[in-house]
Structures are given as structure tokens and as C-alpha cells.
């Protein structure tokens, strides 16, 4: 049996990140959670021998570099908080630095969370729903909008991610709890839409279902999504 990849999770203490950790250990992956505060991880996960927790900041390269070096794939859920984003945002430059570390340590596969604020000009169709959502974000927090666009452009409009097999997955709304019971129930909810903004795109997917899809991608490598920026949502009637 092939050895499962060791997965580094960034943004692991948010609800979606905790769902990803639950999915990884449930499927017997070894996981590394790079966090600022380990106390934000639920006790049942902290006691799991498949999970290692590394504490550090985004701007402290030594522990982050060590965590990257020991991983085979990275899932990042890091991004701006709506209404609490400095301008300019640190996240685009962080992702450029992360790609540098991945090249340095020979780590290839990266999955980065973004939102439909970033437009895939080649693939997306016009959408009034997306336009309305983006206008609302701009009104509430223009720096958050600019940060999301900046994250997408690190990968699509610069050479900073050269040599990295990246996928920028775009999600709009991710409801659902991260406790063990909610995760267990929600991971079974419906199917997953993966593709551009368009007729079949939906604006919502359960956190646990997103986590299951992400771990599926890590397990398969998802070669069809390398260098792509798909939107991810639930299938209609199930999100």
C-alpha cells in the first residue's frame, strides 16, 4: 500500500480548518497543524497521535520552514477576515513566500482557499449573484476584497508560484459546525460542484463536505486541477 502523504494545514484553528483536521485523521493521514495558538484546537484532536501541532506566526520563517520541509502536500485556509483586514493585506506576500519555501524543500502540491471575488477571466461566466456578493464585500471591507484578488493573482498573474502544483479553490459561503458530531453528519451531505462561476455553480458548501473534497484531492493528487482556480460548492438542493 502506498504511503499516504503528510499534510500541512494552514488556518487549522478556524472551523473549516478543524473540519479538515478531522477528515485527515479520520482517513489515517498524518497531519501537521501550523497554528498561533494550539489551545484553539479541540482536545479530541490534540490527543490524536496522527496530528502534530507546530506553533508559530506567519512571519516567523524558521518553524514554518521546518513544517513545510516535513510535509508532502499543503492545504491553506488562510485569508482575510471580513471587516478586519489591513491594507495592504499580508496574505499575497505570505503566499509568495510559502511558494519559495515549497521550492526550497521540494514540496509540490498546494491547495489555497480564495473566494469568487477573484475572477477567472478565461472560465467564469457572468453572474448577477456573484456580482451582488462582491459588491457587498467591497462595501463592507474593500481591503478584504483586494486581499482575495491579490491571493489569486499571486498564482495566476505572476511567476511567484512557478514550480508549485497549485490549485486555488474558490468558495463563497461555508456553513456548518466543526464539532465532531456536526462534521460526521455534514461530510455526507450531497455532492460537490467543481468548476467555473456559471449556471451550475452554487454559493454554499458545508465545511465538512469541503474538507472531505479537499482530502479526496490530496489523496488523488487532483492532477486535473493543477494550475486551476475552480469554484467549489454543493450540488443544488444539498448545500
Write the layout of secondary structure elements.
Layout (H helix, E strand, L loop, with lengths): L6 E4 L4 H12 L4 E5 L7 H4 L4 E5 L5 H9 L3 E4 L14 H15 L3 E6 L13 H29 L8 E6 L9 H7 L5 E4 L11 H14 L10 E4 L5
Parallel strand pairs: 1-2, 1-4, 2-3, 4-5, 5-6
Antiparallel strand pairs: 7-8
Helix pairs in contact: 1-7, 4-5
GO molecular function: oxidoreductase activity, acting on the CH-NH group of donors, NAD or NADP as acceptor
Protein name: NAD(P)-binding domain-containing protein
Family: Belongs to the avfA family.
Give a verbal description of the structure.
GO terms for molecular function: oxidoreductase activity, acting on the CH-NH group of donors, NAD or NADP as acceptor. Belongs to the avfA family. This is NAD(P)-binding domain-containing protein. The chain has a single domain (7-234), classed as NAD(P)-binding Rossmann-like Domain (Rossmann fold, 3-Layer(aba) Sandwich). 38% of the residues lie in helices and 16% in strands. The protein contains seven helices and eight strands; from the N terminus they run βαβαβαβαβαβαβαβ. The protein has helices at 15-26, 43-46, 61-69, 91-105, 128-156, 180-186, 207-220, and strands at 7-10, 31-35, 51-55, 73-76, 109-114, 165-170, 192-195, 231-234. It has a six-stranded parallel β-sheet, sandwiched between helices. Strands 7-8 form a two-stranded antiparallel sheet. Helix 1 crosses helix 7 and helix 4 (91-105) packs across helix 5 (128-156). The protein starts with 6 loop residues before the first strand and ends in a 5-residue tail after the last strand. 44% of the residues are buried. The mean pLDDT is 94.
Amino acid at each position: 500500500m502506498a504511503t499516504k502523504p503528510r499534510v500541512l494545514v494552514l488556518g487549522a484553528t478556524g472551523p473549516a480548518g478543524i473540519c479538515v483536521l478531522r477528515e485527515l485523521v479520520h482517513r489515517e493521514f498524518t497531519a501537521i497543524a501550523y497554528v498561533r495558538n494550539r489551545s484553539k484546537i479541540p482536545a479530541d484532536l490534540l490527543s490524536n497521535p496522527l496530528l502534530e501541532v507546530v506553533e508559530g506566526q506567519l512571519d516567523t520563517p524558521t518553524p514554518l520552514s521546518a513544517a513545510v520541509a516535513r510535509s508532502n502536500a499543503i492545504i491553506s485556509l488562510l485569508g482575510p477576515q471580513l471587516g478586519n483586514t489591513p491594507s495592504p493585506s499580508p496574505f499575497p506576500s505570505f503566499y509568495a513566500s510559502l511558494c519559495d519555501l515549497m521550492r526550497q524543500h521540494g514540496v509540490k502540491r498546494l491547495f489555497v482557499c480564495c473566494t469568487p471575488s477573484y475572477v477567472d477571466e478565461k472560465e467564469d461566466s457572468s453572474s448577477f449573484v456573484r456580482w451582488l456578493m462582491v459588491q457587498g464585500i467591497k462595501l463592507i471591507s474593500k481591503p478584504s476584497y483586494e486581499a482575495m484578488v491579490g491571493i489569486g493573482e499571486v498564482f495566476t498573474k505572476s511567476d511567484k508560484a512557478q514550480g508549485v502544483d497549485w490549485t486555488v479553490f474558490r468558495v463563497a459561503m461555508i456553513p456548518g459546525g466543526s464539532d465532531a458530531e456536526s462534521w460526521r453528519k455534514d461530510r455526507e451531505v450531497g455532492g460537490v460542484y467543481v468548476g467555473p462561476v456559471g449556471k451550475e455553480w452554487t454559493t454554499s458548501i458545508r465545511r465538512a463536505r469541503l474538507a472531505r473534497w479537499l482530502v479526496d484531492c490530496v489523496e488523488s493528487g487532483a492532477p486535473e486541477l493543477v494550475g486551476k482556480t475552480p469554484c467549489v460548492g454543493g450540488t443544488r438542493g444539498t448545500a
